[in-house]
């Protein structure tokens, strides 16, 4: 949706208003062939076909199928359209952040099944002095901070346009935008998730999980987190009912407990996303007519209230809303504000009074904030109160937090996102082609990586260690590296296909359904 004429233009022609997991707005989807963009064969002509025509039809069908099953960035090698370079939109860096966060979540989920050491920090219990346990570097194998980044990004992106409309006094458009976002939010989150769980159900019935279940039951390889694994039931009816109940509980809006289902436990974030999104929409609606200073004060107070009650998930979304309003006040995404920002002083009113050596450029300041956010974000999931470098954060953590380690990670995630928004230099790390691709497939990649790790990964790892051994640290890590090199490309490939076959069509479907059902043209509603 284009901004009204009286609104200030953004840094590019369009700032996407899709939510965190949308991957790609329909305006930014390339014309490359995919499962959702073609028919496997043209309509057959009337009458009897000659053998040559039948062969041509089969060849065409197989060619399209080959293109559809090829990753989008390689389709031009098998007769598809070459990748199209799309212009970066205003929030492109945040897409890249989301993509890399998903990749690091994959690392965490790949490792934590086999070792609990990914959850602890450097020096915990007088040991664990490996390089991957050091602050910041620990982010490469830490998953919880990435969830915090997901939630902060959701709060930011979902609130940016409504807040912009509030500040321009476009009350009718505020209502329309919030109504549309509320209507489509559940569809956007749950359609791909349910389809993904259904694929796991089908794979279970086809026997894909038989061997991996044997590995789980033996208990020799799973030395870390033995998370929920798809059950195998004797009858189709019982399996289908179990899948159905899983979907029902996944969509339960009244249960605020974290729900780890057995078919894809990593989707516990989806109902959290949905509930917190609704809280965010209600908060924006309730504060939409307030002046900005009062609105920000009210939201800050609500954020503190949620902290005191241990609602760490809602805190992320409200932090995102506060940052979005601050960026609107500052004009962060405006063209003239983005020019030469690295050379500007952080505190222009006092910079002229300080000696040159004490003046801090905006570039250095936000880089320091970014690094400090990475440091806080890499606080370990377990035992951070007894971990060097992080003991002091335990004194600041509200006692009501059900998972105390999430408090420093929450602050870290907010600082990371805020500093990225304010620094073109940091944004450049996340606007390259690789980062943007990971951002596009991120939601699909997040959905498919768990089932792949539970089927292929669980089956591979014991056999890899049987070959290379695991008696020494080198052999143990070599087995991890080989398994990672196999599982990651397959997960990215599956995520790419799922993105084109399910994710993009679900976005289009939610927009189409809304367009068909809403009242249009200001006419009186008769039915």
UniProtKB/TrEMBL annotation:
<dbReference type="GO" id="GO:0016747">
    <property type="term" value="F:acyltransferase activity, transferring groups other than amino-acyl groups"/>
</dbReference>
<dbReference type="InterPro" id="IPR050879">
    <property type="entry name" value="Acyltransferase_3"/>
</dbReference>
<keyword id="KW-1133">Transmembrane helix</keyword>
<feature type="domain" description="Acyltransferase 3">
    <location>
        <begin position="92"/>
        <end position="494"/>
    </location>
</feature>
<dbReference type="InterPro" id="IPR002656">
    <property type="entry name" value="Acyl_transf_3_dom"/>
</dbReference>
<feature type="transmembrane region" description="Helical">
    <location>
        <begin position="481"/>
        <end position="502"/>
    </location>
</feature>
<feature type="transmembrane region" description="Helical">
    <location>
        <begin position="189"/>
        <end position="208"/>
    </location>
</feature>
<feature type="transmembrane region" description="Helical">
    <location>
        <begin position="136"/>
        <end position="159"/>
    </location>
</feature>
<keyword id="KW-0808">Transferase</keyword>
<feature type="transmembrane region" description="Helical">
    <location>
        <begin position="97"/>
        <end position="116"/>
    </location>
</feature>
<keyword id="KW-0472">Membrane</keyword>
<keyword id="KW-0012">Acyltransferase</keyword>
<protein>
    <submittedName>
        <fullName>Acyltransferase</fullName>
    </submittedName>
</protein>
<feature type="transmembrane region" description="Helical">
    <location>
        <begin position="266"/>
        <end position="286"/>
    </location>
</feature>
<feature type="transmembrane region" description="Helical">
    <location>
        <begin position="443"/>
        <end position="461"/>
    </location>
</feature>
<dbReference type="Pfam" id="PF01757">
    <property type="entry name" value="Acyl_transf_3"/>
</dbReference>
<keyword id="KW-0812">Transmembrane</keyword>
<feature type="transmembrane region" description="Helical">
    <location>
        <begin position="365"/>
        <end position="386"/>
    </location>
</feature>
